[in-house]
Amino acid sequence: MLFFGLLMVFVIIMDIRTKDAASVTVAGLIGVGLLGFLSLGSSLSALAYSAWRFCTVAREVSVDKNGLRWKTLRNGRAILWTDVESVWRSERITLQESQVADWSSSLIIEFVDETNISFDHSLTGYKELAAKVQYFTHSVLVGKKILEWQ
Q1: 70 with 144, same domain?
Q2: How much is the mean pLDDT over the chain?
Q3: What is the pTM of this model?
Q4: Do residues 15 and 42 share a domain?
Q5: Does pLDDT of 93 surpass 80?
Q6: Same domain, 141 and 90
Q7: What is the CATH number for 74?
Q8: Which residue range is the domain that position 105 belongs to?
Q9: pLDDT tens digit sequence for 26-49
């Protein structure tokens, strides 16, 4: 789409430079211009989102009995299990002819300060990470819920 947008903008510039009224009408020029700029804008916004996502995704994650630590390209953070408010794990498995055709999963950890972190199956060792997070947070979260219930 980036190439298409640049091509449309180039066509407009070349048409304006030649000032050939017979080649494109004003409505056609506006249509091509809008299409070109929309294509260019959507391509650049997708590129900006990809760059932002690349910088904020967790690169290294470690889990132990006390808590969770992770690093992104910009910063890192560590939390204790007592700071966890909830854990959400979702799995989507698509079967085709009794075979797994597609699998995706995500793990969202919400903290008491109302922030959260999410991990997905693209992280190396994701299944082990999700299992360990669930294992270590289970007793802490059940204890909190029992206190809330009482």
Answers
A1: yes
A2: 79
A3: 0.60
A4: yes
A5: yes
A6: yes
A7: 2.30.29
A8: 59-149
A9: 666 666 666 767 777 777 788 887
